[in-house]
Structure formats: structure tokens, C-alpha cells
Design brief:
Number of domains: 1
CATH topology: TIM Barrel
Strand content: 5-15%
Number of helices: 11
Bound molecules: erythose-4-phosphate
CATH architecture: Alpha-Beta Barrel
Distance between the termini: 48 Å
Length: 295
């Protein structure tokens, strides 16, 4: 059976990717795992766990920045061997206060040399989109930490001249966490893109997925991709891999609705309001989780 959305695994553990792929194929989802998303927090935490670094005295240098990047590289290389046809997102990393477009482009070009099936993750900020605007002609990109329809509108315009796949990743769970209906953002973006041919627009990649209901609604909305943590994939399996009926209704009690806005996509992308506090908070947290290992 073919699902309306591609399934990616959200994590940084090659063993999980392998198991997830087998599990989906066994369940009759022919394509299995077709991609992987990673992020600095997931990689840093796994490194800390594996190396026992958490037990070291705090305040001491733990590992060099190069070592941690090398671990990131080896991890995605291993994942790439498991899903050689899959799209594997690798994020640019740095202090959000100082990381420039040029820094991101340098990192992006380096990350693309790690594996043949990499996708570079840039943040949904002005500097990130400026980098993606250039890099989308050199390789696939994924715009991470997306929380608004405006940001997704800017992603479409900024990457219009892409030669490779472009993904936009609305983070639903982090919005739910603070009482806003994150799935509304997915619905709004898919609706905004609905008349644009799939090859000419960013693919909607539903991320920060926390519940089976998120998966079902994302499938119902035909989100191009859903990235699912392994634990949640197991839960979906335990529930018998349900898929949404035609008359599926997503029930999000207590979550504030995020309304749809009519936006013209015929403007310069800089005209869109890219600011979102969750993007800033997310970037800061990614950097903190990374930095704590290398200080
Ligand atoms: C996606 O690319 C991210 O890695 C991920 O979905 C973030 O999810 P979280 O909000 O659970 O950290």
C-alpha cells in the first residue's frame, strides 16, 4: 500500500532507521523509510550518551568541535548506507547571534560532501533563507524551525529557482506545547501551495510530530512528508498502523486556532515577516545542546 505522505525518521540513531525501515516494509508500506531528519540536539545527546560524557565533571572541555562534527558526519554516513535512496537532512550549526549566511553556505557545501543523498537544513530566518536561496541551486534544502504560513510563503519565493528538492518543516508539537494548534500551520501551508505544481514548490515536511493523531491528520492533509520519531512509529505500529478515513476530523481540544491568511506569492521574499519567537528559541536551544558537549 502506498501512503499519501512519505515517511521519514526523526532521530540520529542508524539502528532505529534500520528497524523502522523493516517495520514499515513488513507492514506493507512498500516504500519503507524514504528519508531521515537529524538535528544538533539529537546528535549531541546521542554522542553524550554513547561516550558517557554526561558523567564528566562539568565545566571541563569535553570534546572538540571537530570531533563532534565528525561524529555527526559518521552518523549520517551510516544512515546513508541504510537508506541510500533516502533524503537525509543535515543541519547547519552555530551561535544564532553570529552565524552568517556565508558561514551557513560554507557548512552546507561541506555537509553535501559527506554523503550523496544529503539535504541541508537551514533555519527559517532571514540569514537562513538567504543561504537557501543560493544553495537550492547546488543541492537539496530543508527549511527548519518553521512556525508560520508567512515563513513558508517566503521559503517558496526564495527558492523558486531551485534545481533540487526543497522542503519546508513546520514544527507542530512545539506549537501544541504552548497551546496553539500546530497542525493548523501544516493545513495552512498545504492550502497556500495547493495550485502550485509539486516540482515547483517546497515539499511540506510535517515535523515535531508527537502523537498518532498528528500522523493521521498529516496523512489526511497529504503533507508530502511526515518525519516521525522511532518511539512514535512503534506506537503507530502498536495501534495497528491506522490510516485516516475520508471523513477524518482532527480533534485538538484546548488548542488555539491559527487562521489561514490570503498571501500574495508574487512579492520579494524579504517582504514577508519571518520573525517568530519559536524559531529564535529553537535555534538558541539547538546551539546550547551542541555547545554543552564541546565546552
Ligand atoms: C525535525 O526536523 C526536527 O528534528 C524535529 O521534528 C524536532 O522535533 P521536537 O520538537 O520534538 O524537538
Amino acid at each position: 500500500m502506498e501512503l499519501p505522505s512519505k515517511i521519514f525518521i526523526d532521530g540520529g540513531d542508524p539502528a532505529e532507521t534500520h528497524e523502522a525501515d523493516e517495520l514499515l516494509k513488513k507492514a506493507g508500506f512498500l516504500t519503507g523509510v524514504t528519508g531521515q531528519t537529524t538535528n544538533p540536539s539529537l546528535i549531541a545527546k546521542r554522542f553524550a550518551r554513547e561516550s558517557g560524557i554526561m558523567n564528566q565533571e562539568s565545566g571541563k572541555p569535553k570534546v572538540s568541535s571537530e570531533n563532534l562534527i565528525d561524529y555527526y558526519k559518521k552518523t549520517v554516513q551510516e544512515i546513508s548506507r541504510i537508506i541510500p535512496e533516502g533524503a537525509i537532512s543535515i543541519q547547519v550549526i552555530g551561535d544564532p547571534a553570529t552565524l552568517t549566511t556565508e558561514d551557513m553556505l560554507t557548512q552546507a557545501r561541506d555537509r553535501m560532501s559527506w554523503i550523496p543523498n544529503g539535504v541541508v537544513k537551514f533555519p527559517a530566518t532571514t540569514a537562513g533563507l538567504a543561504a537557501a536561496e543560493v544553495f537550492c541551486q547546488e543541492g537539496p534544502v530543508n527549511i527548519t524551525l518553521t512556525f508560520s504560513q508567512e515563513q513558508a510563503a517566503a521559503v517558496y519565493v526564495a527558492t523558486k529557482a531551485h534545481n533540487y528538492d526543497v522542503y519546508v518543516s513546520p514544527f507542530v508539537g512545539r506549537m501544541d506545547d504552548r497551546g496553539e494548534n500546530g497542525m493548523d500551520v501544516v493545513a495552512n501551508i498545504t492550502s497556500m501551495y495547493r495550485y502550485i505544481e509539486v516540482m515547483k514548490r517546497p515539499k511540506v515536511l510535517t515535523a515535531s510530530v508527537r502523537t498518532v493523531a498528528h500522523i493521521l491528520y498529516a496523512l489526511w492533509l497529504k503533507s508530502d512528508v511526515i518525519t516521525i520519531p522511532f518511539k512514535l512509529l512503534k506506537q503507530w505500529e502498536n495501534e495497528g498502523f491506522p490510516i485516516p478515513p475520508k471523513d477524518f476530523i482532527y480533534d485538538a481540544p484546548g488548542l488555539a486556532e491559527i487562521p489561514y491568511h490570503e498571501l500574495s506569492l508574487d512579492v520579494d521574499w524579504h517582504e514577508f515577516d519571518l520573525t517568530h519567537d519559536l524559531t529564535d528559541i529553537g535555534l538558541k536551544k539547538f546551539w546550547e545542546d551542541w555547545k554543552v558537549i564541546i565546552q
